[in-house]
Amino acid sequence: MTDSNLADLMQSFENFNLKTGFVTSSQKSSPQLSIDGYFFRISGDAKAATVNWRCIKTNLYCKAKCYTLGCNIGSEYTVYFNDDDDQQHSHGPDATGLAIKERRRILKERTGACAMSVPNVAPRQIFTSLVGCITSPDTIAALPSYDAERQVINRTKKSIRPDYPSQPETLKDIIIPDFLTLNLLNEPFLLHDSGVDDPDGYLIFASMSYLKLLENNDVFADGTFDIAPKLFKQVYTIHALFHGRCLPVAYCLLTRKTEKLYTTVLNSIKSHLASNPKSITSDYELAFINAAKKVLQCTIYGCFFHYKQAMFRLIQDLGLAVPYASCEKTRHFLKLPQVLAFVPIDEVFNKFNQS
Questions:
Q1: CA 91 to CA 298: how far, in whole Å?
Q2: Which domains does the chain have, with CATH numbers?
Q3: Is residue 106 pLDDT above 80, yes or no?
Q4: Quick one: three-class SS letters along the chain?
Q5: Contact 281, 219 (CB under 8 A)
Q6: What does the pLDDT read at residue 8?
Q7: Does the pLDDT at position 115 exceed 70?
Q8: Whole-prediction pTM value?
Q9: In this protein, which residues make up the domain named FLYWCH-type (predicted)?
């Protein structure tokens, strides 16, 4: 190859104008190519081997264009221009644009990932995970407002939300789609459905792997009413100790608070256990305590928190609430019976008389 031919070849490479661009995401989640602060959208078929791009500022009559050999969001590509004119823009670059678009893209991705595992994740929790990803003062100054980014999160969550069935008006209207009968590991999670014809209707949600935690273990049970879905009186949860932590094992949606229903529910859970729990701690609801004695046949403890609540209700019933609040000696004396919960049973009477 002569020096003249080599010079011509080098000139051809210079005229070819090779650059590297990064494919980010537009506001509508479409691929957008970023090159030195300028942004391009796809012009033509995105699935073609050669992807053509045009500058997004068509309203400014910008005719800059290029092509790449791919358009996957989050990837870098060599950018090709046919001639120098294709690189000329009718406007200046946006120095902060790529960082802001990438922040929005990551915001959407993390929202999607969080929403799959925690549907009600708060926007602020997602924002916290992005702290420190942008440090440039110019970029920080150009960031959208908190309300604008919160709308992005809420729209993203809405777009991936499953197609839930309509609100049922009666127990017979309850239809549980298949995806709501599985946990995040795609294991069966709907343990028992009493059926539409059961007047004492109930649902039990639990995975078999977690139910095993109840076997020969210390178990805790309690009901709550504020979060109970329509048509159900309460959500009764059963927990088990695991490495020093109290984990929820079963969620029971109950229409009544009767010993009969508690007995049915506990029998259903027990049918999946190889052995009974070692103990169960609950509040002082006699209907549940009687059912637990009958079905689980284990040691039953009363919850200290509910015990203190019951003691204070008795103080109120006896008209002692005012002196309890205003007199330290009276308050100390009335609190002494609470300590009896920690005294061995055979010493309760002696300790009470000593107090």
A1: 78
A2: 3-94 (2.20.25.240), 98-160 (no CATH), 173-302 (3.30.420), 310-354 (no CATH)
A3: yes
A4: CCHHHHHHHHHHHHHHCCEEEEEEECCCCCEEEEECCEEEEECCCCCCCCEEEEECCHHHCCCCEEEECCCCCCCEEEEECCCHHHHCCCCCCCCCHHHHHHHHHHHHHHHHHHHHHCCCCCHHHHHHCCCCCCCCHHHHHHCCCHHHHHHHHHHHHHHHCCCCCCCCCCHHHCCCCHHHHECCCCCECEEEECCCCCCCCEEEECCHHHHHHHCCCEEEEEEECCCCCCCCCEEEEEEEEECCEEEEEEEEEECCCCHHHHHHHHHHHHCCCCCCCCEEEECCCHHHHHHHHHHCCCEEEECHHHHHHHHHHHHHHCCCHHHHHHCHHHHHHHHHHHHHHHCCHHHHHHHHHHC
A5: yes
A6: 59
A7: no
A8: 0.60
A9: 24-81
Select the highest-mean-pLDDT range: 161-170, 236-245, 336-345.
236-245
pLDDT tens per residue across span 257-275: 999 999 999 999 999 999 9
Average pLDDT estimate for 118-127: 72
What is the average per-residue pLDDT within 3-32? 73
Whole-number Å distance between alpha carbons of 183 and 107: 25
